[in-house]
Amino acid sequence: MRTTGIVVGTDGTDTSDLAVDWAAREAHRRGVALRIVHAFDWDWRESRFEVGNEYVDAARQQAEGVIAAAVERVQGIAPDLAVQTFTLIGQAVPRLLESARGAQLMVLGSRGRGGFAGMLLGSTSQRVATHAPCPVVVVGPQPAADDVPTATGDHRSTTAGDNRPIAAGVDDSPSADLVLETVFTMADAQGAPIRIVHACPPVIPPWLTPDSAAVDADRADRLAEQLEPWRSKFPDVPVDVVLSPASPPAALVEASRTARLVIVGSHGHGLVTGTLVGSTSLQLLHHAACPVYVTRPLPE
To answer: Which family is this sequence assigned to (predicted)?
Structure first.
């Protein structure tokens, strides 16, 4: 299947505005069109009465306002970007999933309207990320410009240029190659360094393992072999490797604190049959401090 453009869902909330901004920059970098989608629902039973028509008209006007505001944001970021807009009637999840068919990428804000305060990931974003037929990026609230921690723990302003790495969770599952292809391609396009996070908590406590250093060295060697083809293909991209004894979700959440983006596979080890997003990706979506990119093979 030929893939075309990037799709971003918006509902006018703060995080969806951030998603629109992120999608506009990425579409501009890729040289592809951006499709802005807003879905609004209404009770069809009210359409039997005159008031129902008034409700639909008011809801449509509000929806058109949401789309217009999103287009204005895009024009402020990439004035020459080709933009298509779609105002759709229906429940958000199925309409967004329909819109994602044939897309290179779907971008969403982490929270929508009507959510519970304190939750970082809304039900709509979770369901779309779980079932979308293409890769998905979920964008949440970002730190203030002068409150972005560096890897050493201090804080710096983002206004002078973003030198944060793109982090990627890599294991030896089948999805790892797609994660590596995605992170190296994006880092090369953005001039960004890469931080590879390989998390493997010990099955046996280190103090009970007779040669834990040898085990760590073997892990490092296998990971270096896994990275070698991509380092050769992108020799100018700096790569930092982190071997973490923490669980994969904990290691990736920690990496997100100093990253501009975290890339993970839709499945690693421990996948549940019938789901499109594994538990690690889902936990990261709930707790990450930066946008999360969930890779997924595009339909052929």
So the answer is: Belongs to the universal stress protein A family.
Which regions of the chain carry the CATH code 3.40.50.12370?
146-300
Gap between the Cα atoms of 241 and 137, Å rounded: 23
List pLDDT tens digits, range 58-106.
Answer: 778 888 999 999 999 999 999 999 999 999 988 889 999 999 999 999 9
Q: Indicate the length of the chain as a whole number.
A: 300
**CATH second-level architecture of 146-300?**
3-Layer(aba) Sandwich (3.40)
Second-level CATH architecture of 1-141: 3-Layer(aba) Sandwich (3.40)
- Closest-CA residue to 9 (of 134, 117, 137, 116): 137
CA separation (Å) from 269 to 61, 176, 272, 277? 46, 10, 9, 11
Q: What is the pLDDT of residues 194-237, one digit of tens each?
A: 999 998 876 666 555 666 666 678 888 999 999 999 999 999 99
Checking DSSP bridges between strand 136-139 and strand 292-295, what pairing results, if any? antiparallel
